[in-house]
Write a structure and sequence with these properties.
mainly alpha; Helix Hairpins; 0% strand; ATP-binding; UDPK
């Protein structure tokens, strides 16, 4: 079966959204790192409602959750491509995967800083 590009604006966007939704569903249901990050995002959302954070705090928190999930998804894609191209261990592939994991680390660290900035003053 050959892929046929849909050049119609409306139906093409709908198909793109469908593929994106399917990709998000695959990430959440098959990748353990995404499951953990998604669960933390839900916990932080519940925490935000519990403490009644401000609109600005919601914006920062939502951006942090989205950043971590997005970068984690890209990291997963890099890992899957690397494993597909070179299934056995290779030093350069390992280097590439480490860099992608480092990007997740930076995103997660940013999210932790945002979370601490929001919740430490509220709790203490």
């Amino acid at each position: 079966m050959e892929f046929q590009k849909d050049n119609n604006f409306i139906s093409g966007r709908i198909k793109s959204f469908t593929f994106a939704f399917q990709g998000a569903k695959k990430l959440i249901t098959t990748e353990h790192s995404i499951m953990v990050q998604f669960s933390l995002g839900i916990i932080m959302t519940i925490t935000g409602f519990y403490f009644g954070i401000s609109k600005t705090e919601w914006l920062f928190q939502t951006m942090a959750i989205g950043l971590v999930l997005s970068v984690e998804g890209l990291n997963t894609a890099v890992e899957k491509i690397a494993d597909f191209i070179h299934p056995s261990y290779h030093q350069k592939i390992g280097f590439i995967k480490d860099i992608a994991a480092g990007a997740v680390f930076f995103a997660a660290l940013t999210a932790v800083i945002i979370g601490l900035t929001i919740y430490v003053p509220i709790i203490f």
